[in-house]
Amino acid sequence: MIGKDLVQTVLIGGYPEMLRREDPKRRQTWARDYIRAIVQRDVRGVADLEKLDQCRACCRFSRRLVAAASVLLVSMTRFLWSSGRRGGRGRLQSVIKGE
Fold first, then answer.
1. What is the C-alpha to C-alpha distance for residues 84 and 93, in angstroms, rounded to an integer?
2. Which of 17, 26, 60, 83 could form an S-S bond across to 21 if both were Cys, CB 3.0 to 4.6 Å?
3. In whole angstroms, what is the distance from residue 65 CA to residue 63 CA?
4. What is the structure's pLDDT at 53?
5. Model pTM?
């Protein structure tokens, strides 16, 4: 393939499916549909990455929440012990409930 045939093939595109269509409008429609499919696939991929980022943010928040709750429980336990209000888990639960 040389000369005008090579130039025409380059201008048409090298996709076999596109080359099978002799009508230029059908080639153009195929190319537009192909590009649309690729873009839609890539957009879905980007959307999945955004979901992954949201999931990571949620995990970070959850870790911080668990850490804060742990610090709070340790602080409450130390307070109960230092104030002489022993009584184990039952006493801690009653303090948490506000009894």
1. 16
2. 26
3. 5
4. 76
5. 0.42
Name the CA radius of gyration of the chain, rounded.
Answer: 33
Return the DSSP state at 14.
Answer: S
How confident is the model at residue 52, as a pLDDT?
Answer: 75
Domain positions in the chain are: 4-97
Two structure tokens written together for 93: 């639960």
Any idea what DSSP says for residue 3? T
Q: Is the dihedral of CA 78, 83, 84, 90 positive or negative?
A: negative
Q: Which residues of 68-96 are buried (b: 16+ CB within 10 A; e: fewer)?
A: eeeeeeeeeeeebeeeeeeeeeeebeeee
Q: Could you give phi then psi for residue 15, rounded to 5 degrees?
A: -75, 125
